[in-house]
Amino acid sequence: MVCQPRKDLVIYFVKTQYSLLSFVDHTISLAPSGPYSSSVTSTVLNHVGHPARRAMLRHYLMCPPTYFDVVYSINPWMDPGGHVDRVLAVRQWSALVDTYRSTGHRVDLLEPVPGLPDMVYAANGATVVDGRTLPARFANPQREAEAAIHEAWHRRNGIFYGGGEVHPAVAVNEAEGDFAVLSSRILGGYGFRTTLEAHRELATLTGREVISLELVDPRLFHLDLALAVLDDERDHIAYYPDAFSERSRRLLGELFPDALLASELDAYAFGLNAVSDGLHVFVPAGARPLHDGLAAAGYWPISIDLSELIKGGGSVKCCTQQIRPTRRASESRLQRDVGEEHQTRRHQIRRTGASS
Ligand code: ARG
């Protein structure tokens, strides 16, 4: 068969001692309507035709559900008249922490405070990007006090992740509940909790583009209930289209043509409230179709049962705040390593008298 020459395919041949592997990188340049430019790279396949995935070590901040309860209702899932089994909640949450740690991730813990029953949803407390922290400013008075606790933790501990720059939040934002961080851009949800002003605040703080997406389903009131970042190096995401306004749905379709589309069943089973390290996806149990879709896309889905915490309107991602260290720290480490290698090479060259 004779193929037409194509300019949108880059073909890599990699010679190893075992075989000749070839990768086809399909680069599509998109010109979406709206102010966003985008170049989308589709998934790289490995030698047996499966997408190549790799795990990146993560740093998470979590808070035990010691005082978890449903005593008020600020979202449609919360029924203050229902029963909460706190012992089971602690057991389920602890299993999540163990799973993260056993896959190599670092988990730091925030001290729970009596009278703050939603503190377990640590993702809502702060957004840390490149070591810079924007603490939350909660929409509901019941959770207001949590913000200062997160802020204090980051002020105290920022030094350990090369951060410490903490900016006071002016506009209402519920942190990673509504901010999804990609390789260079950030997706911001609005409509129920986080405001558009907060999107601008995070953009100013991080110097990154924040793409605003409007949420329309009250049961999926945070972005992290409607959309999950699966691979933050290649910007691969999963989302439930009906959770978004028509305009935002169109934008998502244009920006992420290779996204996994979740069903209503997945979304209402909190399936998109998943956490991914690029390979392992910690996905709420019950979202079976999404689980299978993730496996077919080359990820390793790990089912997590947080049935008690779902009663408060949150699951895996809600419980997990990701700390993204400063780029400068990792870059300068990289530069130092490269520099050292350079020095060593120069030294060796001088010693052996070789020249390059
Ligand atoms: N009861 C909590 C609230 O309504 C649930 C928070 C869910 N968190 C999340 N990241 N989606 O605020």
Commentary on this structure:
The chain is of the alpha/beta class. It has a single domain (2-325), classed as L-arginine/glycine Amidinotransferase, Chain A (5-stranded Propeller), CATH 3.75.10. Helices cover 26% and strands 22% of the residues. The protein has eight helices and 18 strands. The longest helix has 26 residues, at 327-352. The chain binds arginine. Arginine (ARG) binds at residues 74-75, 78, 118, 121, 123-124, 143, 177, 222, 224-225, 312-314, 318.
CATH class: Alpha Beta
Q: Report the order of strands and helices.
A: EEEEHEEEHEEEHEEEHEHEEHEHEH
Strands in their spatial order, largest beta sheet: 1-2-3
Name the CATH homologous superfamily: L-arginine/glycine Amidinotransferase, Chain A
- Percentage of residues in DSSP E strands: 15-25%
Helix and strand content put the structural class at alpha/beta
Structure summary, number of beta strands: 18
